[in-house]
């Protein structure tokens, strides 16, 4: 039985615990130019890195076309991989994109990304989860504040904080189309949540999360220590954030959809156990239990070759 360093979904009073794991797991020389000493210090202290215009517009175009193809594919829409908006029925998220798309499979292995992530996590990584978040315009609903790790720990059995979430903007992240908000430094605290996980909670939580969210007092405390920041930037920008960073996003009532491609990289030394606070394991498309170390590849080169072939 693995020790539970982060008990949550408790009865009664919920505390704020200190983080018990390092933020940067890798030591030694840094092999990628993005991770300057300043960037590493930022990630350690604030829990995220925003890489503006990391991908070029021709690369983003390939990703956008692939998003449109998946959104319109009836086989995907009808499958368990698609999650719809509670009220409008529009597609809100598509999971396990790396299993239904060569483009997103290649993107998840992009050597430029993996170089960064491998350093932060200290060695081999695999995909814990992949998804597209579509947040449609007009009636796109919010994601309430949460720590991803809290869910992955309690519902998926992820033992330690040794994972990184990566969100690639496929549309411009504007201040008004429901972009992600983060609380810098919140990754150093673990907000225990109250209430037992209901059975098959994911069927509800992916539409609207009510369990595994901080109390008003906890959220107030975190913001009092810090502030709320909204990383903004053009399509192609990348937000890398530590798995325990508190984040959320508002609804989108503007005509501009806010879509992003999302990958969760976990260390191969942090693979899933039995869920720490839930009866059942979540399905494979939410929580990968067959870790395969990712081999880096040249995304740009592969895409160029594919486009040339089909031209
Ligand atoms: O369920 C998940 O894995 C992710 N989705 C939500 C709505 N909350 C936790 C985590 O970010
Ligand atoms: Fe999240």
Written overview of the protein:
This protein has one domain (16-22, 47-310): Sandwich (Jelly Rolls), CATH 2.60.120. Helix content is 28%, strand content 19%. The mean pLDDT is 93. The protein is built from 10 helices and 12 strands. The protein has 311 residues and is α+β, with helices and mostly antiparallel strands. Residues 146, 148, 247 line the site of fe (iii) ion.
Report a brief summary of the structure.
The chain has 311 residues and is of the alpha+beta class.
**Tally of structural domains:** 1
End-to-end Cα distance:
55 Å
What is the CATH topology?
Jelly Rolls
Radius of gyration: 18 Å
Can you identify the CATH class?
Mainly Beta
Helix content: 25-40%
What does the largest sheet look like?
7 strands, antiparallel
Strand content: 15-25%
Specify the structural class.
alpha+beta
- Fourth-level CATH superfamily: q2cbj1_9rhob like domain
Which architecture per CATH? Sandwich
Query: What is the averaged pLDDT score?
Result: 93
**Total beta strands:** 12
Largest sheet, order of strands side by side? 2-10-7-12-5-4-3
Order of helices and strands: EHEHHEEHHHEEHEEEHHEEEH
Shape: globular
């Amino acid at each position: 039985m693995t020790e539970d360093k982060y008990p949550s979904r408790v009865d009664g009073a919920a505390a704020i615990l200190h983080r018990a794991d390092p933020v940067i797991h890798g030591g030694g020389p840094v092999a990628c130019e993005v991770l300057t000493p300043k960037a590493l210090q930022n990630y350690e202290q604030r829990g995220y890195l925003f890489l503006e215009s990391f991908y070029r517009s021709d690369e983003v175009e390939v990703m956008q076309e692939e998003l449109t193809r998946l959104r319109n594919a009836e086989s995907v829409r009808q499958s368990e991989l698609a999650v719809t908006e509670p009220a409008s029925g529009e597609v809100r998220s598509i999971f396990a994109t790396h299993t239904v798309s060569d483009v997103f499979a290649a993107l998840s292995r992009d050597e430029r990304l993996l170089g960064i992530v491998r350093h932060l996590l200290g060695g081999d990584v695999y995909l814990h989860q992949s998804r597209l978040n579509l947040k449609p315009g007009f009636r796109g609903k919010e994601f309430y504040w949460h720590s991803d790790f809290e869910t992955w720990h309690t519902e998926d059995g992820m033992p330690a904080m040794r994972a990184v979430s990566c969100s690639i903007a496929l549309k411009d992240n504007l201040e008004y189309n429901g972009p992600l908000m983060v609380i810098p430094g919140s990754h150093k605290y673990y907000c225990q949540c109250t209430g037992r996980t209901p059975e098959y909670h994911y069927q509800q939580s992916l539409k609207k999360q009510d369990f595994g969210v901080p109390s008003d007092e906890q959220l107030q405390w975190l913001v009092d220590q810090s502030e709320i920041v909204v990383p903004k930037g053009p399509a192609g920008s990348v937000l890398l954030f530590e798995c325990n960073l508190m984040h959320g996003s508002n609804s989108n009532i503007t005509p501009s959809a806010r879509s992003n491609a999302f990958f969760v990289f976990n260390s191969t030394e942090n693979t899933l156990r039995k869920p720490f606070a839930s009866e059942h394991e979540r399905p494979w498309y939410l929580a990968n239990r067959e870790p395969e170390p990712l081999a880096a590849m040249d995304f740009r080169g592969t895409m160029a070759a594919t486009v040339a072939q089909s031209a």
